[in-house]
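hey m, so remember when u said the tokens were messed up on ur end? i reran from scratch. heres the input so u can diff it against urs
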Amino acid sequence: MPSRTENTMAITLSCGNVFADFGVSNANYHLVKANLASALRRLIQERKLNQAETAELLGTTQTRISNLFNNRIDKLSFDLLLGYMDKLEQDVEIFVRPRKQ
């Protein structure tokens, strides 16, 4: 019977924020912004809107909607994403709590 070589891999548990795991500054900001963008994409998909229809509804350009759907959220401000949520008649809540030790 041929011998079998086992590969080992180190596994590191996430702290719950991928941005913090990779040492990105302002990790919480980036996580909240990414979650907001994800929720926007989901809402738009649920409404079965194409990019042009979405841009018209939100009073923006198709380029910005394309950035949203191509995960180029670095091109979109947090305030802009909040404004889109408002135009889609969504309430946004941000919770503040002590950090887990």
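this time it looks ok to me. The helical segments are 18-21, 27-46, 51-58, 62-69, 78-87. if urs says something different then somethings off w ur setup not the seq
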